[in-house]
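Structure tokens please, single chain.
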Amino acid sequence: MKDKKIFSIVLSGAAGQGIQTVENLFTQIAKESGYNVYATKEYMSRVRGGNNSTEILISSKPVRSFRKKIDLLVVLNNNAIERLRDRISDNTIIIGEKNFVSKEKNSIPISLLEISNSLGSSIYANAVAVGILSGIINAEKTVIDEVIYEYFKEKGEEVIDNNLKAIIKGYEIGKQLNINFQIEKNGYVKKHMLLNGSQAVAKGAISGGCNFISSYPMSPATAVFTELAKASKKYNIIVDQAEDEIAAANMAIGAWYAGARAIVSTSGGGFALMEEAISLSGMIETPIVVHLGQRPGPATGLPTRTEQGDLDLVLYAGHGTFPRIIFAPASLEEAYYLSAKAFNFADKFQVPVFVLTDQYLLDSFYNVEYLPQIQVERYIIKTTKDYKRYEITESGISPRGIPGYGEGVVRVDSDEHDEFGHITENPKVRVDMVNKRMRKLNEILKEVIQPVLFGDENYEYLFISWGSTSQILKEAIEELDIEKVAMIHFPQVYPLPKETENYLSKAKKVVFVEQNVNGQFANLIRREFGIDTSNRILKYDGFPFSVENLKEKIKEAL
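Here you go.
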């Protein structure tokens, strides 16, 4: 990947200035013009004001990770530059109002407001900015027409025409700037889809047969809730915005009990309220799928920032002991695939299944070639008159019936119970039931999602990661291209495959890379396998690792 050419554009301004509109339009235009695109954002916890920024990478080859470098900075308010000072280099070109950029090296004063007013209204400043960026990358004009029409078609011809005029004006300015942009186009990219992490999780849930979602809004997980709500009519999904997270989780469990395939989408603070329901799921062996979008805590913490701080939360959530499955996707493709698999695993093993993402992954998007349809697997049986909901089996998995399908009574009870679901305090039955439930772990391990190795297979130095950090680490290692160095990404972080120990014991040095203060995954590995996990690269300031930052950390670790 050393020869990969990447052009980094950063837009920075206040909340309410329409940065997201520029991002949405420009990335679509760039993709449809034949460029690989990647975008991610960081934003303050406020409706208006402050300063937010969006990074858009244009590349000849796929790129999927945050970069610190800025080739072109477009500033929309007066404090944008100082806030990004540590990312600005001598080669960064800065575009913006004269009073914002005049003191900067390589600055190009452009008054978006003056240009948009000359076109009839200041509202067109965003369209002018889209046009300038499109001109710089030599976007196809026919593509611009198509994208603008599709974006504004519900607002009428006048809005479409006015925005097109503003974009073409900006396009002409952008072409005249003669900014050195040398990214090659790839025609196949035009066939790709653009989606973000929230859309990937939602599409995965739909592919997994989801037909019920109950949630209470909490960033950054709300977007998954809204995406499924948008798709509810097309895919016959029942959507319920519950009065709180306690109700949301219990409704999802009730839906599974009735035969639905349900999910809740929440963040750490919301999930804390769901823990009793998670324990209920474990006891009555009724599935639940939980998507948890991580953000920095404790309490409200940094509600619009990113972190990998909730692995321990879901690993130990709920009183008592019962099996569970935890997925942690690194990419949009994995977010889709694992979200779909979560429903099949929940249905088969009758346990809570968690999909751990984070703000960075959910708000990042790029072009994706293909999302395969996942086969929906159903494990509900038709009950007989003598049906035993908690029948003792060698695998620990009892046949799961639902009310009204067959002649049997489907009893579930949060108290300890016998095979029929009747309450009991018999000590032998108690032990038998606990052992039955725990035997499921052996069955889960037979179908565990295996870790993925990148880099030199004859490694001496091994870097370990999980979740969204893995994609950034992968690109850093690929660009360094150092012999005897590799990394392993764990799409499933619990239960862990037995092969984990073999991977780690082969290495001369193992280093864990995580976005939390205490190395939660490293601690889990140490607990499970007794391996030294003391070498750690940790970040917990609310911002993701950059590829450049990790390259430096890797070289230090070596």
